[in-house]
Automatic annotation (TrEMBL):
Cofactor(s) needed: heme b
Gene3D superfamilies in UniProt: 1.20.120.1770
Membrane topology: Multi-pass membrane protein
Signal peptide: 1-27
Main location: membrane
The entry's keywords: Electron transport, Heme, Iron, Membrane, Metal-binding, Signal, Transmembrane, Transmembrane helix, Transport
Cell location: Membrane
Species this protein is from: Oryza brachyantha
The keyword ATP-binding belongs to this UniProt entry's keyword annotation: no
Protein's name according to its UniProt entry: Cytochrome b561 domain-containing protein
Length: 251
């Protein structure tokens, strides 16, 4: 349990560090050129029907990739720790692999769409995080396919790296989806509240399932121990007060 606590702490710290370094600060250069560039980034975006469709498609591809399929893959592989059937474990494992492969394909399609159709000056938080995120998204499946066999000494190091990178991609990816929604609202002035609420509900549900999986074994173990303790108490009472099987003799 302590090991999982440290892993979560490292994942959160790593994600926060990425966001900290990628987020532009107030003390950045304030030269006229930079101010003019910043002014341009907040100018209202003139949405043509084609651009509107491309933005919606980009948002859908990235949400379905880092906002849904990748967290779903994490949940699928995590459920295997509570499953005893070998066939069920195989199904969950291959479902995990399939969901991550599809997620990488969708993220790649979103990257191609962004590079070929949008302005990519990388002068805002959303684009900077997205660029770094794409690199890690393509690195993660490579690490996954290089999985060492069980029993190999390097296996624990590989597991920790694969787990931390996967959690980091999910956390930073979801954060960048929020940032992208906010950026869309700033550039277009259109309401994004329904999408923000839906994304929050989905992320909250997945986070609950993820944390619940960690405690499920503990809950089951406590119930088994309580049941075993109850059986021991009943057996102790039977030994202390044995039933009288002999018939009473009437004089």
């Amino acid at each position: 349990m302590l090991l999982f606590g440290r892993k979560r702490l490292l994942a959160v710290l790593g994600s926060c560090t990425v966001l900290l370094f990628l987020t532009p600060t107030q003390c950045a250069s304030s030269s006229p050129d930079s101010l003019n560039q910043s002014y341009k980034t907040v100018q209202p975006l003139e949405l043509t029907p084609k651009l509107s469709l491309q933005l919606k498609l980009h948002a859908f591809l990235l949400w379905s990739s880092v906002g849904f399929l990748m967290p779903l893959g994490v949940l699928l592989i995590r459920i295997t720790s509570n499953v005893k059937s070998t066939n069920s474990i195989k199904i969950l494992f291959y479902s995990h692999v399939a969901s991550q492969i599809v997620a990488v394909i969708l993220a790649t399609a979103g990257a191609v769409l962004s590079i070929s159709n949008f302005e990519n000056a990388f002068n805002n938080t959303h684009q900077r995080i997205g660029l770094v995120l794409y690199g890690f998204i393509w690195l993660q499946p490579l690490i996954g396919f290089l999985r060492p066999d069980r029993g190999v000494k390097f296996r624990s190091v590989w597991y920790l790296a694969h787990w931390l990178l996967g959690i980091g991609i999910c956390v930073v990816g979801v954060a960048n989806v929020y940032i992208g929604i906010h950026t869309y609202h700033e550039r277009t002035g259109r309401s994004v509240r329904p999408w923000t609420v839906l994304l929050t509900v989905e992320v909250s549900a997945m986070a609950f399932v993820y944390l619940f999986q960690d405690r499920w074994n503990h809950v089951v173990r406590q119930q088994q121990e309580a049941a075993a303790l109850g059986d021991d108490d009943e057996q102790s009472e039977e030994h202390a007060y044995p039933a009288n099987d002999h018939k009473e003799v009437v004089p």
